[in-house]
Design a protein that fits this description.
With about 250 residues, the chain is mainly β. Helix content is about 5%, strand content about 70%.
Length: about 250
């Protein structure tokens, strides 16, 4: 019965929804649990959305660099194969945008630094462990943060600065497989992702961007220090490069 319920949930989650690069953080935990995680994204490309508007009427592409997110996760595992969780924390990052004219010729560069801002999200995780130790699961989550930024614009004329607010939101769906070896659980998975970035400057003009690559991979390892405490390390590749470390407390 558990297998049928889990399979139905995974199919339901996987059909209509997209995903992003937020960490999966291993299989679900039964009962009430709290986790503290530190995530670092080194690089990810974004491209102009079809309705982007920039200061000169042309799209601006950019790439995220050095994103730090510290998140507290509170979850509750129903049975031993399904967990619902929320995430609360903060984020800070930089990104660089290339400014082009209407003919596609480069006009300048925008280097943008954000201020530390509030981040939140929620997710649903399911997994089933077979008697031989093989684990099959999937994770679905949404994450969002909005914060102030300061930009330095450099072009042929000189330099200028501007301020505003930027909103980043992510959807993620990632199936994974793992194998339980004593206290260790290595796992690997793939994900389909969608990240959206909306930049609104102090003059009210808006630029919208979306992820350039949607498919990625991740690999992780969970270690049981004791029945109530777990450590998790996870890396992400292809669509972006990032790493995440978590400490999970189970009650």
């Amino acid at each position: 019965m558990k297998k049928l319920i889990l399979l139905g949930l995974m199919m339901l989650l996987g059909l209509p929804l997209a995903a992003y690069s937020a960490p999966v953080e291993g299989p679900p935990a039964q009962g009430f649990n709290i986790g503290l995680g530190q995530d670092y994204t080194n690089y990810r490309d974004l491209k102009p959305h079809a309705v982007s508007i920039s200061t000169n009427g042309t799209p601006i592409g950019c790439n995220i660099r050095h994103m730090y997110r510290t998140m507290l996760k509170v979850g509750y595992g129903f049975f031993d194969f399904l967990e619902v969780y929320i995430k609360l924390g903060g984020a800070d990052y930089k990104f660089r945008g290339d400014i082009e004219d209407q003919f596609g010729n480069p006009e300048g560069v925008a280097k943008i630094n954000t201020k530390w801002g509030f981040a939140y999200g929620a997710g649903l995780k399911g997994a089933y462990t077979f008697k031989n130790g093989l684990l099959v699961g999937a994770d679905l989550q949404y994450l969002r943060h909005r914060q102030k930024y300061r930009a330095r614009l450099t072009d042929l004329i000189g330099e200028d600065t501007s301020t505003g607010k930027v909103t980043l939101q992510e959807w993620q769906f990632g199936p994974f497989v793992g194998y339980k070896i004593m206290k260790f659980l290595p796992y690997v998975g793939v994900k389909y992702s969608d990240v959206r970035l909306k930049i609104r400057d102090c003059d009210g003009e808006t630029t919208k961007l979306k992820a350039d690559d949607h498919f990625g991979a991740f690999v992780g390892l969970t270690y049981d220090i004791m029945p109530q405490v777990k450590l998790n390390l996870e890396g992400r590749f292809i669509d972006e490069t990032g790493v995440n470390f978590n400490v999970i407390f189970k009650f």
